[in-house]
Amino acid sequence: MKTNSKKENQLRLRISLIILLSSLCYTFFLNTINIESIKKQNPENLQQNARSLVYNSTVYSIDNYWYLSQFKNLLKHGSFTVDPDKQFYEVRRTPVYPTFYGIHYWLFGEESSFYYIRFTQAFILALAVVALFWAVYNFTSDYSIAALSASLYGLFPPIVIAVYYTVTESLSTELVCFLIYFLSLCKTKGSNRDWFLAGLFFSLATLCRPSIIFAGAACFFALISFSKFSLQYIISKGIYFAAALALLFIPWTVRNYTKTNGDIVFLEKYYGDPMDYGMPNIQCRQWIACWINPADFTSEEISNTMIGNINSKNPADKNEIIKSFTNRLPARAYIGNTKEEINHAFISLYNYYVHKSQPDSFKVDSLEKVSVHSFLNLKTNFIAASWKDYYIITPLLMVKSVVLQSNSGTLVFLDNYEQSFPKKAVKAILLLLSLFSFCAVFLVFFAGKEFRDIAVMTFLFTAFNMLIIILTIRYFEVRYNYPIYPFLFTTSGIVMIRLKNRLLNLRK
What is the pTM for the complete model shown? Predict the structure, then answer.
């Protein structure tokens, strides 16, 4: 027995090392290609989102502002906040990724932090691929399924490219992999330690990327299912899981309570405008969400264009700026509203930005109310004219955006893919993989009863994630899907191997 156990441990170690080294090599290879593509397209390194570099190391993201300043402000001003001059910004972002980056900043300094963090993140990704492999094996007892699921995750370009960024996507999916791993141990062993570590990684993942809170439904199901409905098991193991949650969430919540003078903030919260564009921008986005995914016609782009023109030394005519937006509007944007009403709303937004940087706060407040009311009227008129479009057709279009997605916006080496068959092929493969992974959420229920646990867990997390995006936020960016991919690729691997086996059986 000891000999067999020793051989099994040696086998596990060899497999883990192979996966680890393969993941590292692939990660550095793919990111080198991406970095070289950025340098080729932007030789002067003009600051562009996902198309320029920070200190010739990581890829620049417009979200760097929201994640990299907290620790610096802690060291400089004694306040862990995005901006010490803005009220309540202490609770604007969850703490895990800012702290993770901050450790690199503290150890290596400003410039070198961007250099070394790539290697840390690449190594954590490699560990996550190993963890997912063993997690899937624990759930399925099948090396083929484990290898395929881990490969789908570890080779998926958007996740691999993310480790050369300094945003939550650089770390969040890996934390989900570790969560799945410890949940798999909770099924096979069920020790108090495993349940505590599962709770700990659930807390870390959620405090890195708040949407991972919806994986709580999967964790709760796991507790019920693994217990075989034993109340004693549920209580005894649930205590350890809850203790891990309390270890991280209670200090963070208490700290937020004191910083906000009495608000209970478990994760993060913004007061009013979340992105400093003003409340009219929020109402503009809510109107856009009536007829399209706002990521496809962004209110931020509208505001940035207006602000940029106002601040320009040679500004274009205001009416020309407004016309540039109205000319791009699809027919559905005019449901319930005339062109004149939409023009009036855009003009009110422009006028608001003209005075926003000026000291006359009374004028700004007045213009803000006018603009907010204008866009609110557009939304109200849209819903009154066609509730079916608002509650049915637009959500279905959002589902299409979520599912039929190549996730290739950060893959610079695929830019201008229309002119290259290989690039088209890669884009097509990524799109088909996304479509298949969402279909597998349902198909896995026909793969066998032995996969029920991971099937239900994947369904719950995916369903909650999509419902919040489509019905509550009514806004989708590809990064919103990242946390569910470790689950999606697990069920995809199960379905693919089962389909392969059935096809082979049919040929016999």
Answer: 0.91
